[in-house]
Design a protein that fits this description.
The chain is about 65% helix and about 10% strand. The protein has helices at about 5-10, 20-50, 55-75, 80-105, 115-135, 135-160, 165-190, 205-240, 250-265, 285-290, 290-310, 335-350, 375-390, and strands spanning about 275-280, 315-320, 325-330, 360-365, 395, 400-405. Strands 2-3-1-4-5-6 form a six-stranded mixed β-sheet, sandwiched between helices. The longest helix has about 40 residues, at about 205-240. The structure holds guanosine-5'-triphosphate.
């Protein structure tokens, strides 16, 4: 679909390169329509995953504001300049500013509404000044470019600082960089020339290239927003499927995946793998006496303490209820004993207002590098069962060795 430029922009005349100009303006309208569609998808993502992926709603509003800016630009010549020029510039800055706020929220940062209002407000006043009081097109372009550049730079900084090392972030960064470079070139060109070369409604190589590239970038940006949001969702869902929501540590599934990775290392020499099966003693009494909410806090507290007592390469998981399992790569059953003692000591010595608890621990380590998780767990569980039967608050090795807890 081609939009005849003379109808939409009455101020412009057909010229020898009209086909080239028509393509650019067609691209503008196609970009606008596509952005409306993309923002609808973003609104639906925002509604469904508001707490998981923040900022998508602002990105969607930003895209709509940019569409509004394109419409305002299209009405130049129909509406008086005093209306269409400030309105289209303000709408564009609102769009980019809302995108900036969206990006800040997406990366878990506070929204800079103050900066947003200062940038668009001061730019709006400047544009009115150089439109009505001292008409100067070049100054208007330079001022607008400067304002837009600030908003892009804020986003670029955020991506560098908080962006995941992943294709989606590189893609987003590249688009922001192109946008920043474009406005910088246009702003500088406006100052060094008389401004005519950067007038988007006049046919010039610079203006045509600027319009074509910036529309393409805006279109790709809406794709980038959705790609970023879906990548975040993927990570959130992965995290949910492998982690325990109460304590934040691995769940049984996540532990199984971790074990699988470590078993490969074990076969390559980091052998054996040791497992600690840990179970809180008389936890039912804690729930009964202090309530379920307090019981939950105790479980969170224990999970943190156990993780802290382990080495960096070890992991603890919650298998359900008050039962935890820790995996210690490259550790024999004998070497796992001091770790189990350290965990019990950490729990005993912790300064906390929570009710005190003790842990029974069963230890098993691989009898061969081929021994799988189920077999190892079964032996650790059997040892744990014996620790409970022996009177609790004990450490029992799967090979029958029983140690009295230092806590006594
Ligand atoms: N607060 C809280 N309690 C839980 C959760 N999951 C399981 N429980 C409680 O954990 C308690 C487990 O009780 P039991 O299996 O009898 O174990 P215990 O009281 O620790 O006794 P021993 O293990 O034999 O020392 C039950 O009261 C469950 O309701 C949870 O997510 N939060």
């Amino acid at each position: 679909m081609i939009f005849p430029r003379t109808n939409l922009f009455p101020g412009q005349r057909a010229c020898s390169d009209q086909m080239r100009s028509l393509d650019v303006f067609t691209l503008m309208f196609m970009t606008a329509f596509t952005c409306v569609g993309m923002s609808m998808i973003m609104f639906s993502v925002h509604r469904s995953f508001r707490s998981e992926v923040q900022g998508v709603g602002h990105w969607a509003w930003g895209q709509l504001a940019m569409v509004l800016a394109v419409l305002m630009l299209a009405l130049r010549g129909t509406l008086p300049d005093v209306l269409s020029v400030p309105a289209s510039n303000a709408a564009l800055l609102w769009g980019i500013g809302l995108s900036m706020i969206g990006t800040q929220l997406f990366y878990g940062q506070a929204a800079s509404w103050r900066l947003f209002h200062i940038v668009w407000g001061s730019c709006f006043i400047g544009i009115l000044w150089w439109l009505l009081v001292t008409p100067d097109f070049a100054m208007r372009v330079a001022l607008y470019s400067c304002a837009e550049l600030v908003l892009h730079l804020v986003q670029l900084r955020l991506v560098v600082r908080y962006g995941e090392r992943h294709f989606t972030s590189y893609f987003f960064f590249a688009l922001l960089l192109v946008q920043a470079a474009l406005v910088l070139i246009r702003g500088v060109a406006a100052l060094v020339s008389d401004g005519a070369s950067v007038d988007l409604l006049k046919s010039s190589a610079l203006a045509t290239s600027y319009l074509a590239i910036s529309n393409l970038v805006i279109l790709l940006l809406s794709v980038a927003f959705l790609v970023l949001a879906s990548r975040r969702l993927q990570l959130v869902l992965e995290q949910r499927s492998t982690h325990d929501p109460l304590t934040g540590i691995l769940n049984r599934r996540g532990f199984g995946e971790f074990f699988g990775r470590k078993q490969i290392h074990a076969r390559q020499g980091d052998w054996p793998l040791a497992i600690l099966a840990l179970d809180l003693d008389h936890f039912k009494a804690v729930n009964d006496r202090y309530g379920h909410a307090m019981g939950d806090r105790v479980l969170q507290h224990v999970a943190t303490l156990v993780q802290q007592a382990l080495r960096e390469r070890d992991r603890v998981a919650r298998f359900g209820g008050e039962e935890f399992v820790a995996l210690l790569p490259g550790t024999s059953a004998k070497d796992a004993i001091p770790v189990a003692l350290r965990i019990q000591a950490a729990l005993r010595d912790a300064v906390s207002e929570l009710p005190s608890c003790t842990l029974s621990i069963g230890i098993a380590s691989q009898s061969s590098e081929l021994e799988d998780l189920d077999s190892l767990l079964a032996r650790a569980d059997a040892a744990l069962y014996r620790a409970k039967a022996e009177g609790r608050n004990r450490i029992v090795l799967a090979d029958e060795a029983v140690l009295r807890c230092v806590a006594g």
